[in-house]
Amino acid sequence: QKNGELFYLELSEGEEEAALARAASSQGVSTNHVRFSDKEAEVITEQDRKQRRGLKAEGETALKRLARILRRKRRPSQRRGGKEGGKENPASSRPASILKNQAAQRQGVTVQQQRLKDACVYLNPKRLGGGCEGGGLLEALLGVVHRPARSRAPGDPAAAARREERLTVHGLIPNSPAAKCGQILIGDVIVAVDDVDVTSENIERVLSCIPGPTQVRLTLETVALVDGGGGAEPSPARRPKASPPVSQLVRLLWGEDTAELQMSVGHIPHVVMYLSLKLDSASPQDEEEILYQYPMSEASGQLKGVRGIFLTLCDMLENVTGGRIISSSLLLGKHLVHVGYWKEGSNLLVIGLPAERVPLLCLQTVLGDVVRTLKVMYGSLDSAFCEVDHAPRLDHFFCLFFQQLIQPWRLREGCSAPPPSAPPPPPDVSGTLFLEGLPAVRWLTLPPEIKMEVDTVLSDFESSDFGEMSEDFFGLRRLYVTLGSCLFYKVGSYLIANHLPKEALLDVCLYCQHYCLLPLASEQRVGQLVVWREVFPQQRAGGGVAAGYSRPPGRHFLLIVGLRHFMQCVLLEAGGCASPAAGSPGPDCVYVDQVKATLLQLEALEAGMEERLSAPPAPCLSCADWFLPAAAARERLDGLAASSPVLSKLAGAVRGPPPPPGARGRGLFGEKSRRSSPQRSLSDSGGEEHGSGAGLSPNSTPDPARRRRDSLGSNGSGGLFKVNPNPFHLGTLKKTLTERETEEMYATLKLTAGAENTLFHYVLMETVRGIFIAPTHREVAQLSGSIHPQLIRNFHHCCLSIRAAFQQSLPGRRAADRPLGGGWGLGPVKEHGVLFQCKPENWTDQRKPAPTMTYWVIGRMLLEPVPQEFYVCFHDSVAEVPVEMAFRLSFGLAL
Amino acid sequence: MFGGGQGAVLSSCETEAGGGVVWRVFQDSVMLIAVSRGGGKEEQVRLRRLLENVWSCMVLVLGQDELVHVKNVERLKKELRSCFSLIDLLLEEKLEGILGSLTHCADSLLPPNASVLQETVDGFARAADSEFGCLIVHGRIASATEKWWRLAPQEVILLSAFVRSLSSSGSASCDYPVFLPQGSPTVAHRLLRFQLLPGADVCVLCGPTPPLHEAEAQLVGRFWSPLVETLRECLALGERCLPGSVTLRPDVLALLLINRETRRSVCCVQMFPHHHTLSKTRRWELLRSFYTFSTSRYFSQEEAACGPPEERALVGDFLQGFSHQPQQCYLVTEECKSFGLQTPQHQLFLLSPPDVPTFALRTVATQTLLLLPLMN
Predict the structure, then answer these.
(1) Which residues of A touch B38 (CB under 8 A)?
(2) The last residue of a domain, from among A561, A596, A612
(3) Chain A partners of B327 at a C-beta cutoff of 8 Å?
(4) Which terminus of chain A is more exposed, N or C, with fewer CB under 10 A?
């Protein structure tokens, strides 16, 4: 039970518990790209970085001498890096960087590179409150969190045994002496206290001998050596567990200090304020109406200065126009700022955002999401803002919020492998805005068998019938009832299973989004992640009382456990039929362990999911660049294909992707048959015919067209043909299966009509289940090309507008008898499309006009049979009926 | 207003029901505020236009000096009454089928025998010692001298509106001093207006000569009496604005065609598919909304680019987000389907019945564009 109380201290402080553990090994490498700001580091210039590189290199050499084992560790991790991130550039640079970082970190902290270091901590046993029942003196006094080995992930008994005696620092309690002194790092091992050797056995005794306020010298062993002992395999065992204070979480997640990040956006006006509308003019106090404000930068100070406007407008407009104010725009110097309002009770939440980041069209959605997240976290806006204790947490919350909106690339950079010397990638702000603004979660369709297995595993977990969790085991009332859980794969990018009601799912998802849990770690493996906090699911809070039944008044807790590629969110209920919770309880180790066990169990299925991800896109996609006649090769190919229908047919049945040299071939070809079709063949008789034709001679003599294409692909002309699906006849994409090819024949789902596949991108949102599907990141990444990313950005931007049109027209539907011209003038919108034209950039040929390509972006809203929204982007050449496409897509994906 | 001292300029607000408030200060002297209840996000575009137009109206009637250097506020208030009727006209948008105040493109009418009218207008203006002459039929410009077209689009629109408001007063002719908001905001010109037939007016902008009665007695009869029949034909076109030779496809319920170079526009509503349920008023309303919708989101408006910088910042924030150029857009609603198309020279907006297949809209639009070669 130690685990549960372990978090007790922290919870009583602030009720949120974010225990975030990072693998200090290859898995987490890139996330762990900690830039320890050496005071001067504000914006890191190129030079600066070089300097630091040098610094790190020095540190590394010093370390090398010491740690032979450490290098041994590096080698496997290098190998692993090669395997895992095959597409990442030089694989060796990644694992190395962590070492450099660690070295630099050491240097920053202690001057001499020593294996053992001393840290002086001032302790005062008198200040121990009565509140700490469990954690032991180590925590209570020193603020060092140590987890006994038994609570670690199962499946690694050997490692656990090895570690039995050592006092590894698994976490630091905020504001504790240990955290304050700054020299004790997570992962260190406490070797001695005032020269008395300590182990987990005697530490309590040693500490209890400290009579009064005094300074204690701790001797610590650094992390690298300890971990290096593990040697061969970077296994789950080496996961230093951290429960850092929130700001540290930021530093870990972003690799930078919040202050620094905040400073870099200081000139961009943005603000959040929570204002009281009840003004007591008698009281002389200034700025009394501001209940909360963030940030404190100059530009936002300006916005703060004009808060009178917001208050007046809020008050006045309701009287004048009869509707509540929702937004206003103002010019601050050169910046146009959109300000969104949210009135709750007698208080007003005001959020100002720069117009170039958040168009007015989606301000409403953004604001709504923030409010909802806050409500999920704190129950209501009032309770969130009016309690002083929450201020630092809210600061952090909004810091994340603004950073995500204003400079998302900065966040990415912090976690993407090497700090790119290249300029930050063009921000796809509208993409983020659009996808996150959808009341839905990205869904990954899985083959039915895998899906079933996943569901079974989750259901098993949710039934809570296992060992210690069952009521029979201790004869006690259970602590929590599992209301449901959902599982994200690739840490949060894709939802693969959901056993939560829709609203709860959205709550959970919003929370994850705001804390960057979803987007940030999408491609990396998170070592371990545990988040525990009390939540207030909106649906439950908001009544929903059926006749004769009232929901048991219970408290709800959200437990998020991430383990490498998986992240599981569990919603627990205390009270009701479980025992009521008192105070602010911490996570019960049993639950955490069970979730972990579930995740480990699921890891067995990972191969299948990975395969699904690396499978060719289910509705085939085309790359925009193929449609620009820029590449002369295309014409030739077209000519070839057109000249002989038989040839084109055969070419249509192009073989599966040639295994890329290296590691991932197995992933693509191994158990291909398991990738049974979520993409059912859809009555496309032409497709069938092609398929069967290909089935007869899948490896038939290479016809000229194909050879041509292959050769083109191999010399990689502009990356045009490297992509595995045949660009021109994706519709009848056919894979030659290395095994069982005769039984398994797929004609891949094709969305567009006509011979060529003209689909570029799609998003389908189903409102009932709160999910949306879109091509996976990897699918998009496969379609390399210069125009395609642009196109997708444009698509997302346009979708913002389309969706805004849908949203605006919806209220009009409800109040159909409202006088016309009120609200939205155009009436309910069913479908909306925009045609775009694009030209290749930097067209140098002066004589000829640049070739152009036109494509549609169309959004369609369906209310029957299930409410759906469907956004699609396709080439102009074929007239499409979006409804049909939507249906094809939603039927084709076995949802 | 409130935030000026802090360096913040408030420009607009939006409320739940789609209503909005828009502020703008002109020449550091007059602040205009427009409030509307309902209309959606696009309403702000309209309100912004309205403010601009109202300010221009005030300049047109009173001159800029009067408004910028205000000596006596009470007197100014009294004087402003003289432009109320014009402002009312803009506010009420009484006359259906006049979209100029929104599009800032002169509403025009394509007369059956344009060359005769053109010659006569030119001759008439020359005789009146002026380079600016214009024939207005049903509030739309049927013909005008070249110089008239060279006036700023906004001035052309306001002058048409002004003539409309004068002719509705019923007098046969009048002589009125006007300031051109952009051309000569401080020096007044004389606007002579003569009613040729009910609904058809001719006007010239001229200097101190000739006197009104002289021009009326000598010139009007001489130039226009031979053309009475032609004028009647023009009047007979009514709101269709298009010569009888042009037959639109029956599946065009309403259209608005803008020539982006000459800043002229033609719009009409086709009523002959009577079986269709949409009323005329509703069609105009839809056309208007669709225009604002598509221009505020996809198609750029020319003058937005040359306006004052702060205005530019307000308009373009969404448009600039597109990495590729929008060309066409359509909207399927319950009542009808709307299609918008933009080429370097034209913008075309049309409404179709809902039973027209969506993919056919584009063909309908391009064909319609070809049908109207007159607009160039």
Answers:
(1) 821-823
(2) A612
(3) 835-837, 854
(4) N
Answer whether B15 sits within 8 Å of A325, measured CB to CB.
yes
Fold of B254-371: Beta-Lactamase (3.30.450)
Using the Cβ of A329 and the Cβ atoms of chain B, whether some distance falls under 8 Å is answered with: yes
Between positions 770 and 829 of A, the ones with CB within 8 A of B are: 790-791, 793-794, 797-798, 801, 804-805, 808-809, 820-829
* Number of domains observed in the structure of chain A: 3
Please list, in sequence order, all residues whose beta carbon lies within 8 angstroms of the beta carbon of residue A527, skipping any fewer than 6 positions away: A21, A22, A23, A24, A25, A27, A28, A239, A564
CATH number of domain containing A518: 3.30.450
Residues whose CB is less than 8 angstroms from the CB of residue A375 and which lie 6 or more positions away in sequence, other chains included: A381, A384, A536, A538, A541
Q: For chain B, 376 residues long, give each residue's pLDDT as a single digit of tens.
A: 556 667 777 888 888 777 788 888 888 888 888 888 766 667 777 888 889 899 999 999 988 888 888 888 898 888 888 888 888 888 876 556 788 888 888 888 888 888 889 999 999 999 888 889 999 988 889 899 999 998 988 899 999 989 888 888 778 888 889 999 888 888 889 999 999 888 899 999 988 888 888 888 888 888 888 888 888 888 888 777 787 777 788 888 888 999 888 888 888 888 766 666 778 888 888 888 888 888 888 887 665 444 455 555 555 566 777 878 888 999 988 888 999 998 888 899 999 888 888 888 888 888 888 887 655 5
- A619 & A748 share domain: yes
Residues of A in contact with B41 (CB under 8 A): 360-361, 804, 808
Give A294 to chain B, closest Cα distance, Å: 19
**Separation of CA A179 from chain center:** 28
- Asked if residue A538 is part of any domain, the answer here is yes
Claim to verify: residue A443 and residue A583 sit in the same structural domain? yes
Whether A464 is in a domain gets the answer: yes
Domain boundaries, chain B: 3-92, 106-237, 254-371
Residue A280 dihedral angles phi and psi, to the nearest 5°: -100, 100
CB atoms within 10 A of CB A330: 25
Of the three residues A417, A450, A482, the one that is the final residue of a domain is A417
With CA atoms as reference, report the closest residue to A124 among A207, A205, A181.
A207
A306 within a domain of the structure (yes/no): yes
Peptide bond preceding A295 in cis form (omega within 30 of 0): yes
3-state SS assignment for residue A434: helix
Tell whether A281 is covered by a domain: yes
> Is B169 an interface residue toward A (CB < 8 Å)?
no
CATH code reported for the domain at B106-237: 3.30.450.30
Shared domain check, A495 and A630: no
Look at the pTM and tell me if it is higher than 0.90.
no
Q: Do residues A569 and A651 both lie within one domain?
A: no
**Residue A730 domain boundaries:** 615-892
Looking from the CA of A598 toward its CB, the CA atoms found within 13 Å total 31
* SS3 (DSSP) at A566: strand
C-alpha pair distances (Å), B95 with each of A401, A820, B141, B239:
49, 18, 14, 10
State whether B322 and A355 contact (CB < 8 Å): no
